[in-house]
What does this fold into?
Amino acid sequence: MSNSEVAKCPKDRLPEYAFIGRSNVGKSSLINMLMERKNLAKTSGRPGKTQLINHFIINKNWYLVDLPGYGYARVSKKAKKTFQKFITNYFEKRKQLVLAFVLVDCRHEPQPIDLEFMQYLGESQIPFSIAFTKADKLKPNALQRNIEAYKERLLQDWEEMPHYFITSSSNSTGREDLLDYIDRINEE
Ligand code: GDP
It folds into this structure.
């Protein structure tokens, strides 16, 4: 189900898990990898297009929620504001949201926009995990170095490192870990 308004999202109260990150972070690829489908999630498209919240029902048990990517470089202030409102509306109104996965490209240093977004989630008391994407693009040592650097930066803001996953859509790294994690929470 695709909606442009939170009010129109599914009403059946199944637990939901949101996926969000900067555009191009690999969100569609990760969702398709998790679901073992080629084109379930479509790439976020260009800025200015209608922003949609996509609900995918999984095993009639929970929803995977694909939220629009943030952080397009060339977007007007007005478009940024509209987008912010759209996203905060979702996070603040959606009571069945259990957890958000914030996607971060493992190749990049911590980016202000991602750190700010995690701050926002923290202040709003929304639990989140981090999913590092595109792990296949780095050698194991470089990957470990980047994760350590990320941890160090986050520990300036947080008492502990949020739970995190290392993922690659190219070789399905992290798929079982992430899905098991969701199943475990759902069983609690
Ligand atoms: P979205 O905008 O966040 O939905 O990003 P996409 O899933 O469309 O991915 C953006 C680009 O990164 C595409 O060219 C993908 O092929 C590539 N990509 C995404 N995930 C991976 C990954 O795990 N490994 C590699 N090597 N490339 C990836």
User: Anything to note?
Assistant: Residues 23-29, 43-44, 69, 133-134, 136-137, 168-170 surround guanosine-5'-diphosphate (CB under 6 Å).
